[in-house]
Specification:
There is one protein chain. The chain is built from twelve helices and no strands. With 211 residues, the chain is mainly α. The chain has two domains: 40 residues, no CATH class; 169 residues, no CATH class. Helix 5 runs antiparallel to helix 6 and helix 5 packs parallel to helix 11.
Length: 211
Amino acid sequence: MTTLGLAGLAPLASLASGGSIAPMDLMSDPVEVTGAPWFVGGVADLNLFVWAAGAAVYLLGALVLRHIDPRLSRAMAWLGAFTVVLTLDDRFLLPEVVLPYLPGLPEIVTYAAYGLVTAWLLAAYRDVLLRQPETVALLLAVAALGVSVGLDLLGWESTTRRVAEETAKMLGAVAWLCFPAAIIVRHLASGDTNSQPAKAQDSQHIDRLQD
């Protein structure tokens, strides 16, 4: 239903743009529209899959952990929401293309906002994050993504810089995904996901028997 709803926006976007945006430009793959070779953007598309998977795993972790560790669950929910934004950023190049074009925001302002959100999340949930051995992956992700942003802001036009920037971004995205995935696997392996609700039900049953 969500996909159908978004598809319905394509004709509206065409009307709102006065016909400068063709509906099929929004609904077709970029390779079809541009006529570029099939492999163009292939690695970037794979990286987008990683970001999308990361968003889903964070939000799944928030649901799985809500009865086990509510504070960690809230941290996962916030990180999942932030990852949705990062996924949209990776797909539509928000700091580089969209935001400078629409509201006129400089690229560095968007990156600064991302940095502030990341710092707030790490500081606000540092107590629960420091208890997770998997936090090493999250910190590695933040460092790799920071390197990618730094290389992007250098403005040094060369193939070497671009390859290094994209490689750092891919490493960061993979590490960002590994953090929640490893936490979920650890809790599933230890049986924690079923123990807490079961204990709560047992406690309620004992209370009813005592009454």
